[in-house]
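Please, structure for the following, as C-alpha cells.
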Amino acid sequence: MSETRLWIDADACPKAVKEIIYKSSSRLHFEVILVANAYQSVPQSPLIKLVKVDLGADVADHYIIEHCEPSDIVITADIPLASHIVKKGASALNPRGEIYDEENIGERLAVRDLMKDLRDSGEVMGGPPPFGPKDKANFANAFNKLITQKMK
C-alpha cells in the first residue's frame, strides 16, 4: 500500500479546515497537496505543496481525480468530485465533516441534483449556511477518525 496523501480542493475550502490539516500533517508526516485555480498561501513545509491549475470549470477536480490514489484522502465540498474519488477507492471528506462512501454518495448526488433544480427554478434560494465552529469541530472529529484509519 502506498503512503496516504491528502488532497484539498482548495479554492472553496475554509481556512480553519486547512489549518487543522496543516497541523496534522506536521505531527503525522503526511503529504498535503492543495489544488486551486488561484494562488493560495501555504505554510513553508516540505510536506505541503500547492498545484495551481488553469481557470475553468472543474479543472482542479479533474487534476485531483487523475492524480489521487486509493490510499489518499480528498477534502472537498464538491459532491460530483467526491463521487469520482469514492469510485477510485479513495476517501472523500467534506469540510463540514461528512465522510462520503459507497453507501451514501449516490443519495448525496441525488439530493444535490434536486437542490440544483429547485434553485434553478427559483423555488429555493441560497446555499448552505456559513461555516461555523460546529462545522470545524465536526470536520476535526471526522478527519481524525479517517486519518487514523489510513495511517495504520
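The CA atoms of residues 27 and 120 lie 44 Å apart. The beta strands are 5-9, 31-36, 48-52, 73-75, 91-93, 99-100.
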